[in-house]
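user: At home tonight, take the chain set out below, taking as long as you need, and be ready to discuss the fold:
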Amino acid sequence: MSRDPRVDSYIAKAQPFAQPIMHHLRAVVHEACPEVEETIKWGMPSFMHHGILAGMAAFKAHVAFGFWKGRLVTGDAARSREAMWSFGRITSLDDLPKKRQLLAMVKKAAKLNEAGATAPRTVKHAKPVLRLPADLATALKAKPAAKAFYATLPPSAKRDYVEWITEAKQPATRAKRVAQAVQWLGEGKRRNWKYETR
């Protein structure tokens, strides 16, 4: 078994509640996949077998553990929405699947890696079509330089201005933002120009 002393050190520095959880997870991974190698990736213990197999991390009040192939391994058993990785916030051994189930998941993850399987990417839904608010369109018509600069901006920079204006709750605030936007656009500035590096 390939054990990395940095993982021993990581576990030793974890909160007392986390140590038995991490020792258990580590033992299960090694039992299910004897060829696994340990390393530290992104500052956290990781298990490698034909690529990244799984990883774990200790936090102040919970442990996180997950498979690199995520739902391909865990199916609907995943609680990844609760916290980072596959099993959500793990605060005790009771928060983990039974050892037999966990062994089966590690073996499945190893076989997926051996086969070169890739996890499906999350489909990002396209943002709605950007519509220029009428008040901004009217103000831009009165300032040709601002309108010309606005036309050169990429969609994300245009969206910054439009969302800033349309998120105003009071009509007076919205009018003030439209005036400010036209001024900045006339000066060739993006919405967040103060934060851009030069």
User: Anything to note?
Assistant: The chain has two domains: 5-114, 134-195.
